[in-house]
Amino acid sequence: MESWLRILFLFGCLFPAFVECRIRRYNFNVMMKTTTRLCSSKPIATVNGKFPGPTIYAREGDTVLVNVVNHAKYNVSIHWHGIRQLRSGWSDGPAYITQCPIQPGQNYVYNFTITGQRGTLFWHAHILWLRATMHGALVILPKLRVPYPFPKPDHEAVIILAEWWKSDTEAVINQAIKSGLAPNVSDAHTINGHPGTISNCPSQGGYTLSVDPGKSYMLRVINAALNEELFFKIAGHKMTVVEVDATYVKPFKTDTIIIAPGQTTNVIVTADQGSGKYMVAASPFMDAPIAVDNVTATATLHYSGTLASSITTLTSTPPKNATPVANNFVDSLRSLNSKKYPAKVPKNVDHSLFFTVGLGVNPCPTCKQGNGSRVVASINNVTFTMPTVALLQAHFFGIKGVYTTDFPPNPPFKFNYTGTLPTNLATISGTKVYRLPYNATVQLVLQDTGIISPENHPIHLHGFNFFAVGKGVGNFNPKTDPNNFNLVDPVERNTIGVPSGGWVAIRFRADNPGVWFMHCHLEIHTTWGLKMAFLVDNGKGPNESLLPPPKDLPKC
């Protein structure tokens, strides 16, 4: 069915007299569906009964209307990850940040216009751990008659990487919260919903991408995993990277990409091997002493005319702690910065912020497995407390007592962040936001800490793209490190990895009024409290204010 929708969409955009091209309407029915993987079945939360969920197709400039009807037993909300949501924060999706969740039996129409964006993004549930199985691609094609800034590929395919637990993921996180300890890691990784060949489950198949010799294919790679960064490789083939997070980059070739949860990467692969079957692999990256799912997901690149019984050409995956491989990829990313697609990096900074991101330990008398303590996470030592009224509603309607605007611009106490640990590992809790005037320019340095363990944190900012102007290992030095910032063609993203035991610096312009969530896209860290929000005030111009909420906005 999805392929027919895509054909109709493309037909309509080629022949707009037949099909209206500006409004895209989708129906998302959230439902439980019993699904079998790894020779084991369980009910999972899905959209339209699919895992992964349906792909949304649109063009730059289109308005997208998605009617989400909740037939499941859980409260639900859906985030359109990477969509700017200019003045339309009511459709951003994070539960209790921009909306109350959609309760069972209720519905909500997400309504947003795609302004100045084209490329690969994705959508996912943004409540509990439901995004483990509730996610799908969001493909934004360029405007009609606007070419790609690279040779147009002959074909394209969506590749969604994810994780699979044999257990109910809600039970997994609930047990972890009860114990105060980390949750069980997943049982497998998946490529387009399938783990591939698994030794203890011979019937478990994998995804196959069929290719014709000599043709080029743009793969829209999405990491929808809950908690793990992944390497992605194709045996015998190089990949040309042309885009990340729906922004064009200077093309470069590689045999391995690194992609964190919340990130997307478009690569072009040419079927230049003539014939055969080639392994596609997704394997974990973790350069800290933290448990991960070590099972490699596999799929097959299958040349037309090759017998199914042919031997598959294999590839070796990088060691899970292959930091140099990851750094080589990340350091190769540069904005295209062409005349048509300039990198508008803020040169002057109105707000210079320094946020530590990491873990902590707080008392928990009921956490027997954790010996009376629980692992938490924080930004600037603030473990975020989720409100019971959506922050955006509280802001718009002036509801008092929901949040405070005293989120600290710097760590409340300084220590050797990547060295000697402080004696007190406790955090404070609160629903704190950082307030920004409209159009202010922001430089934010995100510093990993070594509390419990250093770790790479993929930080996602809602409502904005930002430029990654610098990164380094150890502690950020405000006197010398800015001298090495790239203010010419830094990569533009919506999700950035804070290096394990290091820092990253980003810049953005606060030109989108509303309340915008920022959090680690490792779901366990979000659960533990590694999250905060920016409150951006209205501007003074006619198009610089948050629009009123829609009449069907869900109620808490």
UniProtKB/TrEMBL annotation:
The keyword Metal-binding applies. It comes from the Eukaryota. It is an enzyme of class 1 (oxidoreductase). Transmembrane segments: none annotated. Residues 1-21 form the signal peptide. Belongs to the multicopper oxidase family. This is Laccase.
